[in-house]
Amino acid sequence: MVEYFIEWAPNPDPLYHDPSQSPQEMTIDPPLLDTPISVNGYMISLEHLVGGRAKKSFRRAAEENGINAVLDYPGPIIIDSGGFQGTGDPPEKVLELQSSFSPDIVIQKDTVGDAAQTISDAERTYELAGQYDFEVWYVVQGSSVEEYLDCATQLKEIGCEKFCLGNLVGRSFLRKTDEVSEIVEAVAEVVDGGNLHLLGVSNPGILQRISEKIDSFDSSSAIRNATMLREVYEWKNSGIEYHEKCDSRPQEFYCSCPVCDKFDVFTNEFELEKYTGARRRVRQLRAIHNAWVIDQLAKSVS
Ligand SMILES: [Zn+2]
């Protein structure tokens, strides 16, 4: 079974497993529809939490009570090292910041495309990981297949057991399915049964091809596309169809998600009044619909 972690930005938005409720008990006006979807887990950016994009009151509550309690979500929550990649910050600082939110899983501080620096940070992280009670996932970095392979081998030698594959977002965006598949397959062989998470890639064509090699993936693209491109995904047995910037529901469109039961995800929010929350409500409901479609994909390839 491939798990799908929803990237969630604590601005705060309502949650996908309980969209009508704000994690911070802040009033949502107008209120949202109750359209919960099943969620395997959330991935939250460390930079979001500490860099000022999350509300201060949210950060404080998460530090005091733990991120699971604030989100009222008992499943796994990953805090990534977003924003700290490639900075001079030592891994101990990143671990300490991550630990202040009591997550279930953290992603080591890594450097995109730089295997040598990532390995050196992994060594330090591994030394310190025993002090914490969360899991640490180590990042396999590289730019060529050889570099990825070498990085994975060295991480295994350090003792790492749970892995993420980084730096594949660009290739995924360009739909370089063959290259991504080659890297995933090569690394999967090295980690040999160790947990493998695909970072930032949710391209359906790629997922269908390599789903047997990975344990989980994440992506904000379903949500970003819903909110920024007005793109609606449609789940068909064979895969996903994309509807971009449609102003009305295509006649043959069909969806059995909890949102579509109550709401037309093709509503054009720009025809609604500004500053009333009405536009935000449309985007959120469309994002929940798209996330549900990706979850169907994850279930189908499992
Ligand atoms: Zn739907």
UniProtKB/TrEMBL annotation:
It holds the Pfam family TGT. GO terms for biological process: tRNA wobble guanine modification. GO terms for molecular function: glycosyltransferase activity. This is tRNA-guanine transglycosylase. Keywords: Glycosyltransferase, Transferase, tRNA processing. The keyword tRNA processing applies. It is an enzyme of class 2 (transferase). The keyword tRNA processing applies. It comes from Haloarcula limicola.
